[in-house]
Amino acid sequence: MKPRILVSKCLEFDACRYDGQKITDKVIKQISNHIEFLPICPEVQIGMGIPREPICLVNENGAVRLKQPATKTDFTDKMNTFSNSFLTDLEDIDGFILKGRSPSCGINGLKVYPSMQKSPVAFKDAGLFAKQVNEIYPNHPKEEEGRLANQFIREHFLTSIYCLASFRALLDKPSPADLVDFHAKNKYLLMTYNQKLMREMGRLVSSQKKLGLESALEKYQRSLRLIFKKQPSKAANINTQMHVLGFFSEKLSPNEKAFFLDSLTNFRNGVKPLSVLNGLAWSWIVRFKEEYLRRQTYFQPFPEALLLPMDSAKRERTYKNV
Ligand code: SF4
């Protein structure tokens, strides 16, 4: 099942910006065949028209208002009413890609001014529509389009939404065996993200009879969203790789093991990418017909076609060194 993602409409979909322009975005373009996008322009939805005078965020007694200085119009109530009703009615959404630096869609860091006159920034906040996204969907994956140019951030986002979408597919016709299978094939991926939470999720799976399937699925989905809130660390990936090595340690020659451990050190030192380790592991999985590992989503958490070549050289430089 393709992930279902709400996206700011001006990103590749429609010339709906205040200046009548559309924004070209390489990432959105390249991933669009593999994602079910739901494009929305909140400003057009509340009748602001195209083109329109620019708007900004203004602090009024501690409350952030959405105002149009040229017409002195306050769009706050309209935007809040629309956002709340639209977002509450949304169904089956796996995540959000929103336009940064927009007083409506920007997820954070938007300048809030003390007045509509030219003045220094009072503080920073989220855009008005994005604020409601945060409130109504606090644990869903969400990114601004600019951050997705970073390969590590993009792959984390894609991993999250693909895993959440595959869980959503399971909810169509759920069975206790499906939940057991889902947890089994995602075990190494979840372990890399958060071992403690992965174990708690394992306990949920094994107590589904006691909890009832519906309640177990609901709790599991909540934990699944939580587990993807934080990117996995390099140390967690090394731990997972050592588990993988454990499957083959009796079957490999001393030279093969030494080469793998060397590659692991190079990965730790930022000299080799994770893909080198995964490539080695995958060659053993094929060679020794290791079916349990072959099914692990850790090795391919989203379609290969989404591994974009545009910044492969930068990949490991952006890896979190934790
Ligand atoms: S940033 Fe949001 S509100 Fe602004 S044009 Fe794009 S979709 Fe519309």
Describe the overall structure.
The chain is α/β, with parallel strands linked by helices. It has 2 domains: 4-149, no CATH class; 150-322, no CATH class. It is 46% helix and 11% strand. It contains 14 helices and 9 strands. The chain has helices at 26-31, 42-45, 76-89, 128-136, 151-170, 176-185, 187-193, 195-206, 208-211, 213-227, 234-248, 254-268, 274-287, 291-294, and strands at residues 4-8, 36-40, 56-60, 63-68, 73-74, 95-98, 110-113, 123-125, 142-144. Strands 5-4-3-7-8 form a 5-stranded mixed β-sheet. It has a 4-stranded parallel β-sheet with strand order 2-1-6-9, with helices on one face. Strand 3 and strand 4 (63-68) form a beta hairpin. Helix 7 (187-193) packs antiparallel against helix 11 (234-248). The chain is elongated. The two termini are 33 Å apart. Residues 315-322 have low confidence and may be disordered. Bound molecules: iron/sulfur cluster. Iron/sulfur cluster binds at residues 8-10, 16-17, 41-43, 99, 102, 104-105.
